[in-house]
Amino acid sequence: MIVAFSITPLGVGEDVGAYVADAVRVVRESGLPHRTDAMFTSIEGEWNEVMDVVRRAVAAVEAQAPRVSLVLKADIRPGVVDGLTSKVETIERHLAES
Which InterPro entries does this UniProt record tie to the protein (predicted)? Predict the structure, then answer.
């Protein structure tokens, strides 16, 4: 499963980078395959382990902010591994054929 999620602290002002870094740190320390871009962090693994990382990332921000917003999108596809890489490779292959 791949989960793309975004955690936003609310009530802390406009500069939220340090709060988001705390959430990303949790993801990186999990050891699961992941990618972070300007809008989302994607993480890949089994349901329980991925959702545990998301829960802990939210808790890291929640410990410092009065309110937290979580946006989550999941691709639940049993048997697929390395989807973070293979999905992008498929798109790149199609682009190269054009």
Answer: MTH1187/YkoF-like, Thiamine_BP, UPF0045_domain
- Contacts of residue 57, defined as CB under 8 A and 6 or more positions apart, other chains included, come to 5, 7, 23, 24, 26, 27, 41
Q: Across-strand partners of 70?
A: 7
How far apart are the C-alpha atoms of 42 and 77, rounded to whole Å?
A: 15
Mean pLDDT per segment of 10 residues, for the chain of length 98 residues?
A: 97 96 98 96 97 98 97 93 88 91
Q: Which helix (H) or strand (E) covers residue 44, if one does?
A: strand 41-44
Quote the CA–CA distance of 35 and 15 in Å, as a whole number: 22
Distance between CA atoms of residues 29 and 5, nearest Å: 16
Domains and CATH numbers, the chain: 2-97 (3.30.70.930)
